[in-house]
Fold this sequence. Notes:
The complex is a heterodimer. By secondary structure, chain A is mainly α. Chain A has helices spanning 9-15, 32-60, 72-106, 115-123, 125-138, 160-188, 201-232, 246-263, 266-279, 287-300, 315-327, 329-343, 352-375, 377-383, 387-417, 423-450, 464-494, 537-550.
Amino acid sequence: MATVTAPLPGIQAHEEKTKLRISDYFKWTVDHKIIGVQYMVTSLFFFIVGGALVMMVRWELLTPTLDLVQNGTQFNQLFTMHGTIMIFLWIIPMFAGFGNYLVPLMLGAKDMAFPWLNAFAFWLIPPAGVLMILGYFAGQAQAGWTSYPPLSTLFSDGDGQTMWAIAIHILGLSSILGGLNFIVTVRNMRPEGMSYFQMPLLIWAILATSIIVVMATPFLAGGLTLLILDRVAGTAFFNPAEGGDVLLWQNVFWFYSHPAVYIMVIPGFGILSEVLSTHSRKSVFGYRAIALSSLVIALVGFTVWAHHMFTSLMPSLRIPFMLTSMIIAVPTGIKIFSWIGTIWGGKIRLTSAMLFALGFLSMFVIGGISGVMLAAVPFDLHVHDTYFVVSHFHFVLYGGSVLAIYAGLYHWYPKITGYMMDERLGKIHFWITYVAFFFTFFPMHLLGMLGMPRRVAVYAPEFQTLNTIVSVSAFVLGISTFIVLFNLVYSLYKKRVAGPNPWRALTLEWATDSPPPAHNFHGDPVFFSNPYGYGTEAAYRYLEEQEKELGPSYPKTMEPSTQAMAHAAPAPAGD
Amino acid sequence: MTREELLALKNKRTLVTVFQISWIMVFVCLVVVCLHIRGNLATALPELTPVQFAIPLLATLAIIASGFTAGRAMGAIRKDDRAAFLSMWQLTIVLGGAFLAVMIAIFFYNPYLETGLYGQIFRVMIGYHAVHAVAIGWWLIQVFMNARHGAYSAENYWGVEAGARLWYFVIVAWVLFYIVLYLI
Lengths: 575, 184
C-alpha cells in the first residue's frame, strides 16, 4: 500500500530536525501534528479561563444573596463568558486538535489535504479568543452563550456584546475551514485499498462532525450578521417595537446550535470507540452501526432545533419536534449498546484512558436519559430554564465531551510526546473528577425539579443546601483539573519512553515512531484490514511485523516488572 | 501531471464543491429571514412598476448569460484555444459588471426603502450578494490579467476553473434571491 499525498515544502524544513523545540509550537507551521498540539494547548488555556469564571459563579451561588458580584449584570457576564468559552474555545477546538493530529496519521497520509488552510483556521482562534475576553472587560457581553435578543441588542449597550458576536463570527469561520479540510482529506486521501468501512471510527466521527460544521455554521453566520447589524447599523430584525421578532433569532440560532451540540460530542464518540476497543482487546461490536449512526445523528440533528423553544413555540409544532427529538435517541442508543457489546467479555485493562472512557459511558447515559425527558413537552414545560436543563447539558458536555477528551489525552499522549503519562496521577485524577463531577451536576436535577431557575444570582433560601453541595463539589472538580495539567507537564520531564505502540493498537497512527517524524511515516505504512481486529492471528502477526520494522512496541524498561509502568504497559494479550 | 499533482487538483475541486454546498446556507438563512419578515408584515408591500420589475430581470438574465460564457471560456482553455478563452472570459466580466452595477443601483434606489423591516432585509440581501459578486468578480479580473500574459493552458487552468466554479456559486445564490425577492 502506498500513501498518496502531495509534497509539502512547508514542512520540509522540519525533516532535518530530529527533535522539535517548544518555540516551534508558537510559530506558524503547516505540519498537522504541530497544529494539532497548538489547538490542544490553546483550548486547554481557555479551559482554565472558562473554569475560573465558573468558580466565581459557584462562589456567588454558595449563598442565596449577592456576595461576590454587585449586581445581576455582573453575574450574567460571568456565566456568559463561561459558556461561550467552554463551547467555542475549549470543546470544539480541542476536538479539532485531536482531528488534526490523528486524521492524517490514521489515514497513512503525510498531512491534511490543505496544510496552509489548516494553519490559517487555527490562527483565527487566538485573536478571536482575545477579542472575546476583551469584550468581557469592555463590559455588557451578558446575554448568555445563546445571545437572545432583546437582551443582546436593546439591553446590552456596551461594546462587549458586539465584540462577542464578532469573535463568534471568526470562530465560526475557523470551524468551517477546518471542516472543509477534514471532509476533503477523508474523501480523497485514504490510502489505496482502504474503503470507508475500513476507516477507524474516530475518522467517521470527524467526518460526521465536519458535515454538521459546514452545513450548520454558515446558518449561524447569517444570523450573527443580522444581530451585529441590529447592534451597529440601526436595523431592527430582532426588535419587536419596530416589527422585528425575537423568536426569529431563536429559530436561526438553534438551527445551528442544536447540531452544534453534536459537533461537541460526536468526536468524543469516536475517541470512545478507539479507547474502549483497544483497552479491552476486543473488536468493536457493530462497527457499521456506530459509523452510520454518527451520520444519522448528523442528519436528524437538523430537525430538532425547536425543542429549545417549547414554551414559546406554536403549540401545533410541539409534537413534531418532540418526536424528532426523541428519535435522535435511537442512533445514540445504538452506539451505547454497541460500546457495551464491545467491552463485554473483553480483556479489560483499567488504564486511565479506559477509566475515563467508562466514566463517559456511565455519565453520558444519564445526560442522554435526561435529554429524552426534556424532549417530552409536558415535562419540559415544567422544568424549562431551570437547573434541570443546566444539569442535563453538563452531563452531556462534561460527562460526555470532557471525559472523552481526557480519555483521548491519556490514550494518545504517548504518541504525541513519545512519553507515557503517569498512570497513578491519571487514576487519582479520574476518581476525583468522576465523584466531584457527579456531585456537582446531579443535585442540579433536584434543584431544577424544585423550581430553581437558571441564570440567577439570588435564589430562594430553601435551595441553599443543595447549592452548597454543588459549589463545594465544583471547587473540587476545578482543582482536579490541575492534576491532569500537572501530569501533562510532569510526564514530559519524567521521560518514561513510550515506544511506538504502547497499547498495541491496530490503527495506523501507531505504526510509526512516537512522536512521528515530520512526514509521519518512514516508508509506506501498511494498514490492517480491520482496525479493531484484536484477538485474531492476523492481528498478532501484523503487530509482530510492526515490531520488526519499528522495534519493540514499548521499551523493555517498561515491562510490567517495573512497578510504575505496570498499569500503563499492557501485556500483549488478546492480539 | 504527476500523481501528487493530480491528487492536489482533485483536492481543490472537492474543496470548492463542498464550500459551495456549505456557504449557500448563509443565503438560505437570509431567505428564511426574508420570508418570515414578509409573512409578518402589517401592511402590503408597494407594487412594482414594469420598469422596477424589468431592470432586475435583465440583470438576472445577464448574470445567467455570464455563466454560459464562463463555461464556454473554460471549454476553450481546455482545448488550448486562448483567443476564444480570452474573449469569452472578457464577456463574462462585462456581463458580471453590468449585473453588479444594477445591483448597486437597486441597493440605493428601490421601492422598499420606506417599508421598514422588509426594506432592511431587502438591502441586506442585495448587499450581501453584491459583496460576494465583487470578491469573486475580482478573481475573474485577476484571471483575465494573468491570462493575457499566457498563464493558462490546457494542462494548467485551475485558476480559471476555480474562478468559474465560484462565479457559478454567485449565479446560483442570486437566482435563489431573485426568486424570493421578485417572483414569489
